[in-house]
């Protein structure tokens, strides 16, 4: 029996066209931890997050997707309605499109609270204001009466997080929550996410920014072309990456300290399209360590607290 | 084709003298007061041949507007831009066209800057056609190879390219007429890390191979560090600090620059308590030092008097009453 908050094993998602968008995603998230799911665009990191809420595009979803041991793949519409919002909530990158533009922020959050718990309109309103103020929104009473477009990007993202947390979910999925924000505002939002993680909920942070992972995540899962190629405690993986892709990705980031290199190390080529993924290791065509054994897809193997899918680590 | 005029070495390639630009926003009420947003407020800059300068700041600080003023896309309300000693505002149409060949721009969104129905070869031939210059297929294929694209793409269309390849094509088009200055507005921020590294390397190689002067507009300090020798930090339309990039990032003089540097998430460093609040509304910016409302080291003087950009130490400038030392 798996006691993880969220446990995903060999998850695959294929579209009717045959494109395999997810091709072997395995990860675990415990309560009180922040898992960074990193990868480049098209790697399937957002789809993984959406699949946990049953919001993935129509297609064939296979593998194991379990929340506190409960199988999510067998969920019906009613199960999902009870699950989303109360047990698990999602924060999107762009809160402008996630809020309804013609309703006030406070009313939208209150609606969600009243949908999931029995309380009066007034009680819901009080809870909204308390939530906004906990999210560090100045003058929360006035902010609740504003329309989404009247708030700055940073405040809108805080309101979005307030809505996600309104029903005290056990799992919070944050999909690039700071990508649209300036760095000084990003730092404020990251602080908030870290507090959520500290309160016994599990946070799945989907991002392309290794710096963000290094600063607030306890664990990391690296995706490439729909496959988790490496995972483990964030500090260990970032300090000594094992998979050649993780290594190359970390080296390609321009450094903020030390000497300025003449050239940044790069990864030649581009990731394969979902309909043209190699049958063997997905990274092999671009891998500097490629060998004959890479013609077969390596399994994600566990080595103590870390996992890697590469023939170099049998 | 007239030979390129080489200015005497004493005149910088590009000089901006106290540039200001504001935009009318319309009224709140029918009889209300007309409101203005000052996007660029008294900015002076100078760039020598082959120099690289980054304009850094958060969204809405005026860095893109400043870039457009330097390109001559918009006319400043006050101040002037001199390119090779000539005032952009006083150029006649023909001269302005010749200037266009020497100053080029690279935009962030490479997806929307090409005509999808035109082949890559025709896309790159366009600058030559517009400027009445001779071109050959061989020259365009050489241009493609200079930016790391295969010459075999000549007959293909931009849709066939990936994001990174499209940005290479964007750069190739900017280089077609051998410009002396390239202004690049967020050239890599839409790209994935591994592709971003390729484009950053390309831009640096072109700077040194072609002796190209460049202005990079960017919010990403790690990219700026890799790509620009000097940087200028903007806050609410004004320059708050300017200096050599590595020195500025290692030891910022302005509290705002320090906050920007510290907010960059990176391994092995704890999350530092960030600045409070958001950037104030540029329509009604705070008096005194514009940064004093968020500044962790502000004193009473900062709310009263606006600091000027003053030289400090070696080749560094800062606009702060109490610079960090």
UniProtKB/TrEMBL annotation, chain A:
Chief localisation class: membrane
Gene Ontology cellular component list: plasma membrane
ABC transporter domain: residues covered: 5-250
Transmembrane segments annotated in the record for this chain: none
Gene3D superfamilies associated with the record: P-loop containing nucleotide triphosphate hydrolases (3.40.50.300)
Topology of the protein relative to the lipid bilayer: Peripheral membrane protein
InterPro entries cross-referenced by the UniProt entry: AAA+_ATPase, ABC_Ni/Peptide_Import, ABC_transporter-like_ATP-bd, Oligopep_ABC_C, P-loop_NTPase
Entry GO MF terms: ATP binding; ATP hydrolysis activity
Compartment(s) where it occurs, according to its Swiss-Prot or TrEMBL record: Cell inner membrane
GO biological process, any: peptide transport
UniProt keyword list: ATP-binding, Cell membrane, Membrane, Nucleotide-binding, Transport
Family, per entry: Belongs to the ABC transporter superfamily.
Protein name: ABC transporter ATP-binding protein
From TrEMBL, chain B:
Positions of transmembrane segments: none
Every ABC transporter domain range: 14-261
GO aspect biological process, one term: peptide transport
Keywords from the named record: ATP-binding, Nucleotide-binding, Transport
NCBIfam families the UniProt entry points to: oligo_HPY
Record-stated family: Belongs to the ABC transporter superfamily.
Protein name: ABC transporter ATP-binding protein
